[in-house]
Amino acid sequence: MIYPLPQSRREVSMHPTARSILTAAFAAFALTAAPALAQDASDACWDKAVTQRDLTDCAARDMDAAEIQMNTLYAIVLDKFRGDPETLGKIRAAQQAWLAFREAHVAAVYPKADTPDAQYEYGSSLSMCMASVAANLTGPRIAQLRDWADGIPEGDVCAGSRGSTAN
């Protein structure tokens, strides 16, 4: 049986601190469980891959999973520093620069990828290889964002805005 939705919904307001706590709790769960689940799915994909198309699909899935994890952490970091416009602006600038770096790096590794001769030059594995290079670059960025999201243990004199006492 399908239950009808109520005609009107009341929006439930939540105190900003409670919202931040719930967001952090959800993110902590998602970021601890999601990588393990994603790794299992990735391993299963690669284990079953037979054709180049299968391999390319697995690489694309790995890249998508890394991108989701990075974007989730980035959103947490933005939320954490929402009260500090100066730091927030610098984090945004750093992320934009990093994304440009990743794109430029992949383009430098495969400089002829956008040409008609790309398949001749690099073969049918080009898409898989480009996704793998991008995903491999994204892993360290995830670790960098995690430092901001989780904080660096007290005592690291170089922690800066990543320190556990930030916001």
TrEMBL record:
The keyword Membrane does not apply. Residues 1-38 form the signal peptide. The keyword Signal applies. It holds the Pfam family LprI. It comes from the Bacteria. Keywords: Signal. Residues 45-145 form the Lysozyme inhibitor LprI-like N-terminal domain. This is DUF1311 domain-containing protein. It comes from Hwanghaeella grinnelliae.
